[in-house]
Amino acid sequence: MADQDIPTLYQWLGGIDALNRLTTRFYEHVKDDPLLAPIFAHMGADHPAHVAAFLAEVMGGPTRYSEQHGGHPHMIQQHLNRHLTQAQRRRWVSLLLETADELSMPEDPEFRSALVGYLEWGSRLAVINSQPGATVDQDAPMPKWGWGEVKGPYRG
User: Fold this and answer.
1) Which helix (H) or strand (E) holds 99?
2) pTM summary value
3) Would you list the DSSP string of 36-71?
4) Which option is the CATH number for 8-151: 1.10.287.370, 2.60.120.200, 1.10.490.10, 1.20.1250.20?
5) So where are the chain's domains?
6) How far apart are CA 103 and CA 36, in angstroms?
């Protein structure tokens, strides 16, 4: 099968509509989660859509997040000085995966492996960037996640 015949993770999961459903439902759960609710207590109503747009771009979809919000440097900026813990990170990942199950997102091992890989990588980066002294590289490229590998400047 030629590379052009292989769908992106974005296409495989159902595009922006599926991601918007995921992030909307996920942040509904976050509001009731004792570990995560305080972190997102002042979250704007547009936060789920911003996260959906970011995930879309990372997974091979449209570049709307970069065009409208400033790409990866902007996402890093959102985490500065938040002092996130490993417990919060683990809960964020597990709750997002539970929400994906709840919404019957694709369950095939290849997709779930790629999703878990990105969530682990991205959430660990968020924790690192939330600690005192972290700074934003204004040239940080947007990560591009694929089927079992990172594409772009991070790897490959």
Assistant:
1) helix 86-102
2) 0.89
3) TTTTTTT--TTHHHHHHHHHHHHTTS--HHHHHH-H
4) 1.10.490.10
5) 8-151
6) 20
Give 16-73 pLDDT, tens digit per residue: 999 999 999 999 999 999 999 999 999 899 999 999 999 999 999 999 999 999 888 7
Whole-angstrom distance, CA of residue 87 vs CA of residue 73: 24
CA-nearest of 114, 105, 96, 113 to 150 is 114
Distance CA 10, CA 22 (A): 13
Q: Are 28 and 56 in contact (CB under 8 A)?
A: no
For the record, the structure tokens of 116 come out as 């878990």
Residue in the structure block whose two tokens are 């747009």: 53
Which H/E stretch holds residue 25? helix 15-31
- The continuous run of DSSP H or E covering 9 comes out as helix 9-13
109 C-beta neighbours (distance < 10 Å), count: 8
What gap in Å lies between CA 17 and CA 12, rounded to an integer?
12
Q: What is the CA radius of gyration of the chain?
A: 15
Q: How far apart are CA 62 and CA 125, in angstroms?
A: 22
